[in-house]
Specification:
Blueprint (H helix, E strand, L loop, with lengths): L12 E2 L2 E6 L15 E3 L20 E4 L1 H10 L4 H6 L3 E3 L5 E5 L2 E7 L7 E7 L6 E5 L7 H7 L6 H4 L7 E4 L10 E2 L3 H13 L6 E4 L7 H10 L3 E4 L6 H8 L3 H7 L1 H8 L8 E5 L9 E7 L4 H8 L9 E6 L2 E6 L2 E10 L4 E4 L1 E5 L6 H8 L9 E3 L4 H5 L4 H5 L5 H10 L15 E2 L29 H13 L7 H18 L11 E3 L16 E3 L5 H7 L4
Parallel strand pairs: 2-3, 3-4, 4-5, 9-10, 10-21, 11-22, 12-14, 12-15, 13-14, 15-20, 23-24
Antiparallel strand pairs: 1-2, 6-7, 7-8, 8-9, 16-17, 17-18, 18-19
Helix pairs in contact: 1-7, 5-6, 7-9
Keywords: Exonuclease, Hydrolase, Nuclease
Organism: Pichia inconspicua
Protein name: DNA repair metallo-beta-lactamase domain-containing protein
């Protein structure tokens, strides 16, 4: 499995309850699939209703929230089989215990991952011994989410009472990473984004690239904080109005923020300060700033790379094409792109990453497991792979649950898991970061994380066209681009390891001159590499933690 594209690997079958499937319908095609009576869908992301488009002769009863059903129908209008299978869907309200048959109950517990998403609690009294299964689905177990779980009646017997989960299926999308790595809370990441947007000049156009269900909260908070703005939601959010009209449950509407999303659709100002669009490029105008979420970014890196900059903060700066400049910093070998606004004499990034995650770090998943009075008897990861297993990720080592079904199966699938947990002895609680030599895995893992490791360009057709233009105007950048990026990353690490000043760079075509506020308007400097010899390397190094 490609660790850069981690998605749910759970195959649907529930231990101890053989007639139930969760989030995967593929098993229905097997000879044993005839014994399945009920299928649950935790939320509307496509890796959680795999196989639903198959032409089943006899589809079991499907149970999910109304919001999830509507979202799946909306994004699969052309799938006849899926629409037909969803006719068997039975809708369930949040925190409502539904009796599927005598002595078999299910409860959908809101987990705030996206519109309509839920954890699924199954209680089976049909055997001599009661069986309790909790399936988390995808979830981000931040402190406020954990606190909300303490108030739900279906979880209270396991948190405060003597009941114990027989099986916990846990979202482990990012849990395999370094056990000391943390991800800042989403509210803080959104707040940083809002403050950065406010620094841009009036009339700036922004484009949110993330349209996956779950990012609505980002749009809403930006809209609430920057009221004098115009929003073009395009086709990416056409489902909003339909859900608004179709969901009668007040609890489901309030948890999903559907009412507020509908208000966002209607917010168009006559003289907006900023313009926002969502999804594909629909805005016209010369300068559009792309906004994309990330998890692998420290606060220091965020401040050094994405805040507006003066000219003397660059080690080199040149105009690449049509008012777009490429600049380098002391710790950044590969140039990043900026727009230059003469009125403010500042450079503003053309691509901005904001910290936002829909999945938990290891520490957050551990906090969730520790929420229960007794550890679960068994623990199974919803996302796993051979790579993570050989990196030391097993349930006993990470969560203290011995002899789990997963550990036994993974041992037979992948061989011995004999790698000790890799901990960072120099950091007891560090923010998640990218491409650091101390990180457990120096990779980006968000499934829809489209920036490369050093935050340069969004990988899409539009930027390929920009790249062609840049190659035509700057012939020295032609050929061997990938090899050059690899070399530059290596040089960056060597520079920090050797504590070398950037002025020692002997790269050709560099002109070392003093920079001032008039420099960029001079013809002799345009379209040339310019390096500013700086003397504050130690000050910057003290704020960074790459080695």
């Amino acid at each position: 499995m490609n660790i850069n594209k981690l998605a749910s690997t759970f195959q649907g079958q529930v231990e101890l309850i053989s007639d139930i499937l969760i989030d995967d319908f593929s098993y229905l095609k097997s000879p044993k699939g005839d014994g399945i009576k009920y299928c649950f869908i935790s939320h509307a992301h496509s890796d959680h209703y795999k196989g639903l488009s198959e032409p089943f002769t006899s589809c079991p009863q499907i149970i999910t929230t109304l919001t999830t059903k509507l979202l799946i129908q909306e994004q699969n209008k052309n799938s006849f089989n899926m629409q037909r299978n969803l006719l068997r869907c039975r809708e369930i309200k949040f925190n409502e215990t539904l009796e599927l048959e005598p002595n078999l109950n299910v409860t959908f517990i809101p987990n705030f991952h996206c519109l309509g998403s839920a954890m699924i609690m199954i209680t089976d009294f049909r055997r001599l011994n009661e069986v309790n299964i909790l399936y988390t689905g995808d979830a981000r177990f931040e402190d406020q989410v954990i606190q909300s779980f303490r108030t739900y009646p279906s979880l209270m017997p396991f948190i405060y009472g003597d009941k114990r989960l027989d099986m916990l299926y846990l979202d482990t999308t990012f849990a395999y990473r370094n056990i000391n790595i943390n991800i800042i809370e989403n509210m803080n990441g959104i707040y940083q984004l809002i403050e950065l947007i406010k620094k841009y000049p009036k009339g700036t156009r922004f484009r949110f690239w993330d349209t996956v269900y779950g990012f609505e909260e980002v749009w809403l908070k930006v809209h609430a904080s920057i009221t004098n703005s115009s929003w073009d939601l395009g086709s990416a959010t056409k489902w909003i109005g339909k859900i608004k009209e179709s969901v009668p449950c007040n609890l489901e509407r309030s948890i999903n923020s559907i009412d507020r999303i509908n208000e966002l659709c209607e917010s168009i100002e006559d003289d907006p300060f900023f313009h926002f669009s969502i999804g594909k490029k629909t805005q016209t105008g010369k300068h559009v700033v792309d906004l994309k979420h990330a998890i692998d970014l420290t606060r220091d890196e965020y401040e050094q790379i994405y805040l507006p900059k003066k000219q003397d903060e660059f080690t080199s700066i040149f105009e690449a094409y049509d008012g777009v400049y490429e600049g380098r910093f002391l710790y950044q070998n590969s140039p990043l792109k900026f727009y230059y606004y003469k009125h403010d004499s500042l450079f503003f990034p053309t691509h901005v990453k904001f910290i936002y995650s829909r999945h938990s770090s290891y520490l957050e998943t551990k906090q969730f497991v520790d929420l229960f009075r007794y550890k679960p008897k068994d623990l199974y990861p919803i996302t796993e792979s051979k790579v993570t297993w050989h990196h030391g990720f097993n349930m006993n080592r990470f969560y203290g649950v011995p002899n789990t079904t997963y550990d036994q199966r993974a041992h037979s699938w992948y061989g011995s898991c004999n790698v000790e947990v890799q901990t960072d002895v120099n950091n007891t609680n560090i923010e998640d970061y990218w491409s650091s030599v101390r990180s457990f895995n120096s990779v980006s893992t968000e499934a829809d994380f489209d920036f490369d490791a050093i935050g340069q360009d969004i990988k899409n057709d539009e930027n390929r066209e920009e790249f062609v233009i840049r190659k035509d105007k700057l012939s020295k950048y032609t050929g061997h681009v990938i090899q050059k990026q690899i070399k530059e990353k290596k040089l960056r690490r060597e520079r920090f390891n050797q504590n070398l000043d950037v002025s020692q760079n002997n790269e050709s075509n560099i002109v070392i001159i003093p920079l001032n506020s008039e420099t960029l308007s001079q013809d002799k400097v345009k379209k040339r590499k310019v390096m500013k010899v700086t003397s504050n390397l130690n000050n910057i190094l003290s704020k960074l933690d790459f080695i």
